[in-house]
Amino acid sequence: MISRGVSRSIAIVGCGIAGMAAALFLTRLGHRVELVERFDAPRPVGAGLLLQPLGLAVLDRLGVGLRIRSAGARIDRLHGLTHPGGRRILDVGYDEIAPGLSGLGIHRASLFGALHAAVEAEGIAVATATGIVDIDRAADRRPLLVEAAGRRHGPFDLVVDASGAKSVLRPHAGGTTRPVRPFRFGALWTTVPVAGTGFDTAALAQRYIAARQMAGVMPVGGAPGASGPHAAFFWSIPSDRVDAWRAAGLARWKDQVAAVWPEAANLIAGIDDPDRLTPAFYLHATVRHPVAERLALIGDAAHATSPQLGQGANMGLIDAAALADAIAGHADLATGLAAYAAARQRHVRFYQAASWWLTPMFQSGSRLPALIRDIGFPLAHAVPYARRDMAFGFAGLKASAFGRIPPPPQR
Ligand SMILES: Cc1cc2nc3c(=O)[nH]c(=O)nc-3n(C[C@H](O)[C@H](O)[C@H](O)COP(=O)(O)OP(=O)(O)OC[C@H]3O[C@@H](n4cnc5c(N)ncnc54)[C@H](O)[C@@H]3O)c2cc1C
Predict the structure, then answer these.
(1) Reading across the β-sheet that carries 143-147, which strands appear in turn?
(2) Closest ligand 1 atom number to CA of residue 108
(3) 129 pLDDT exceeds 70?
(4) What's the CATH class of domain 9-74+102-181+283-394?
(5) Which of 21, 195, 203, 232 shows the shortest CA–CA distance to 108?
(6) Residues 158-204: pLDDT tens digits?
(7) Beta strands 125-127 and 32-36, pairing class
(8) Domain ranges within the chain, ordered by starting residue
(9) Given the CA of residue 304, which atom of ligand 1 is nearest to it?
(10) Given pLDDT bands bounded at 50, 70 and 90, which one contains residue 411?
(11) Does residue 19 have its Cβ closer than 6 Å to ligand 1?
(12) What are all long-range contacts of 130-139, with beta carbons under 8 Å and residues at least 24 apart?
């Protein structure tokens, strides 16, 4: 990274994965960075995440890669079968791309904790309980952040919007490529101990009934406050069925899981309270151009989608690195921001489009997308070139300006 020695005042809205990564990179370049977070205390939301090789390489650059790897679970394969029938829909390994390459399943709290500790160690200011609702401009056009009660912060040389999928600042970047649309399906997520259950702790496994039901087990390594290896378990559900699921009771749900995936019944046997399952729903939004005058969008604020391809956190980390590199590489801020947008365009557009088209094949009430999946995916597995291409796709390595394969970590 080349630093041109200009120290700028930068506000980053959102103390999430992308926001903290950007804060670390930009502080280390000599900028004066402030993180602005709506919650009283920054906190992780959700259960497990699959980190891809490029996201892990960004965490290595930030100096937290070793800590993250020791907290998480190395993932070597992704596989998914239909039920009934056991048709193999997905069976790809990272070693088909390069020997030693892997993903990492991690509990959100572990990733959040490692980044947050680095933010604290770097002495980066975090303004909590500060929900930003708008951007205003000072007389010299520098951006000011506006809170709901009208309080203003700034002006800043640059605002980075890292406020996630529901960003209210997104319209300042000039619109989205499609209407912002919630997916009908989300999932119930929980974390469960995996020791002694017979599950492969190096594979993300899924089961599908057409596209109307999906279940998944993703090893995440350690979980906060618990010992032994854990996995995230997810069970897809339409947003309008959560109340009915709760009313039907846990016993009924456990029977359904056992019918679809008998081995997973052991995993969830210990769940005795529906509140241990957290419903999560997603929306799809891609900004046309993730920059405007003295404003950059990163992470889900720039490109939100369903977690079907497991790329969101990965993309947010890559955005943070790309933004810092672009700003460091150009003395003029506007040129640096344009370079950031250009560096990320192909990768973001590819994965947003892939997620848009693939999500209904795995989570929708429609029969046709599932049928296309059930014919197309096994065919792709049978053709060596297509199979390897698919592995690149799931590993987040398609269409990337950061497209070189990162070397496996030194152990
Ligand atoms: C259930 C689920 C499973 C997922 N699985 C995966 C996976 O396996 N792999 C993967 O890579 N991705 C996954 N994702 C996606 C991933 O979680 C997101 O892409 C990632 O968290 C985005 O990071 P971010 O920093 O952009 O936003 P966030 O992590 O959402 O952080 C945004 C931050 O901004 C704060 N904020 C929001 N609005 C304001 C405001 N107005 N003012 C001030 N602060 C504000 C929020 O409180 C939050 O702290 C999953 C998502 C979900 C929901």
Answers:
(1) 132-137, 143-147, 152-153
(2) 17
(3) yes
(4) alpha beta
(5) 232
(6) 999 999 999 999 999 987 777 788 999 999 999 999 998 889 989 99
(7) parallel
(8) 9-74+102-181+283-394, 183-280
(9) 19
(10) very low
(11) yes
(12) 130/36, 130/37, 130/38, 131/38, 132/13, 132/36, 132/38, 132/163, 132/168, 132/169, 133/168, 134/168, 134/169, 135/159, 135/169, 135/172, 135/295
Average pLDDT over residues 53-66: 96
365 alpha carbon – ligand 1 mean position (Å): 26
| For the chain, counts of helices (H) and of strands (E) | 11, 22
pLDDT of residue 46: 66
Q: Name the percent of the chain in helix, strand, coil, to the closest 5.
A: 40, 25, 35
Distance, CA of 318 to CA of 406 (rounded, Å) = 13
Query: What b-and-e string marks burial along 35-44, b requiring 16 or more CB atoms within 10 Å of the CB?
Result: bbbbeeebeb
Give residues with Cβ within 8 angstroms of 149, minimum separation 6: none
Report the candidate in 294, 308, 287 with the shortest Cα–Cα distance to residue 364.
Answer: 308
219-276 pLDDT, tens digit per residue, is: 999 998 889 999 999 999 999 999 999 999 999 999 999 999 999 999 999 999 999 9
- Please check the confidence at residue 211 and state whether its pLDDT lies above 90: yes
In whole angstroms, what is the distance from residue 307 CA to residue 73 CA? Answer: 18
Find, among 411, 348, 403, 351, the residue nearest to 97 by Cα.
403
Using the predicted structure, report yes or no on whether residue 394 has a pLDDT greater than 60. yes
CA of 44 to the centre of ligand 1 (A): 9
Q: What is the pTM of this model?
A: 0.95
Residue 338, ligand 1, Cβ within 6 A: no
